Amino acid sequence: MTTVASKMPRLQVLALALGACGALLLPIGAAQAQPQAAAPAASMVRGLPDFTDLVEQVGPSVVNIRTLEKVTPNAGSALGMDEDMLEFFRRFGLPVPNMPRRGAPRQQQPEAEEQPRGVGSGFVLTADGYVMTNAHVVEGADEVIVTLTDKREFKAKIVGSDKRTDVAVVKIDAKGLPAVKIGDVNRLKVGEWVMAIGSPFGLENSVTAGIVSAKQRDTGDYLPFIQTDVAINPGNSGGPLINMRGEVVGINSQIYSRSGGFMGISFAIPMDEAVRVSDQLRATGKVTRGRIGVQVGPVTKEVAESIGLGKSQGALVSAVEADSPASKAGVEPGDVIIKFDGRAIDKVADLPRLVGNTKPGTRSTLTVFRRGASKDLTMVIGEVEPDDAQQAKADGDKSKSLEAKPLGLTLGELTTAQKKELGIKGGVVIVNAADAAARAGLREGDVILQLANIEVTSLKSFEAAWAKADKSKPVNLLVRRGEWTQYVLVRPSR
Q1: Which domain covers residue 227, as residue numbers?
Q2: Which residue among 325, 349, 383 closes a domain?
Q3: Between 492 and which of 221, 227, 406, 422 could a Cys-Cys bridge form, CB atoms 3.0 to 4.6 Å apart?
Q4: Active-site residue list
């Protein structure tokens, strides 16, 4: 994995775990002003767009997604006690009130109950029932309910989900559905009008619009996000971002926020990336990605000038994994990778995307700049381990775990191999993120490096830092996710 210092402001990243989103835009009309008496030519005044036709056209393609999970009531809830009180009795060896004594006949365990887990949105990908949404919307759900705009409800099957891109595909048993049109992200321009329809904070069918603020915004391993100023809040997650031609160009996924609400910056997954992922999910239920086994960083202007590269470009190799495709091809630490299969690497984030989108087993050419000259190296692309295998590593020894319930976190130790792969000395890995942690956008596999400005190297050091933290205020965590390191504010539950 590469290590890249984020240039984004240190703000809280929120995965939008609620809401339905989708939208389409209407062409902007130009209104002609009345000619002035003294003016020889008529002046032109551009009017604001009218979105009504596109809302009617594309609205039926947007769906609401409701998720349920099975929860077994615990002993504490049966007695009207919360988990903190129950833990108090356990820790001090006190008998829990009204609980049967040892040796008494066991009471029948209460049956699991289905409880609402979250609400999200999606959109109809194909007329025969394939629906696209965010992976975090359906993650951990025991049941997924899809509701169409005509109020029909269907139980959906999760075809597959990909955490790295936050894309998921579900299937409902329906025919003749109104599928969306897929737009060309390459034609999307900064300043172009886009629109979303969703359920922010549970307010259904809310329409919001804005413009594209930036493209190719680096905030993750494999995704160059579309940044917009469309009002997106918890409740909009998983819905489509639509251009003026009535085409889906992205999936609304994340926001930057200090408060938990919209602050003028939202991010959408580009539709070309999402379609590439969805095609694999529909074909095999999973996504395979290529890897070459290097750790890379940015090439600064000073470094580029000192080695004779001329300009700041490419990806600087800081480490090469043993027995990896890169190692076998002869890649060395200090090399600057400037091309992959003939495509230029302008910035370090370009490399993992190009390699990741290459099918494992493909023979590819890497162009490196070494000691003042370019050199082509041929290699066979390897395969990134699937999420479940990586999660098994992250879980490690189940006996070595720590629960920070007010933060909604279950944590595990990092293995030596994981530390080496990430290029870090310590930290703890998130095994499960719920409640406060989930609301702050944290998820399984994230690595916590600091808590309240105190370095975290192990579960023991995390516990010590948490003991010193002011639990009445939001706690800042320095979190590593792939190549990206970011501060995240978590509000502890009481």
Answers
A1: 1-27+49-71+114-288
A2: 383
A3: 406
A4: 136, 166, 237
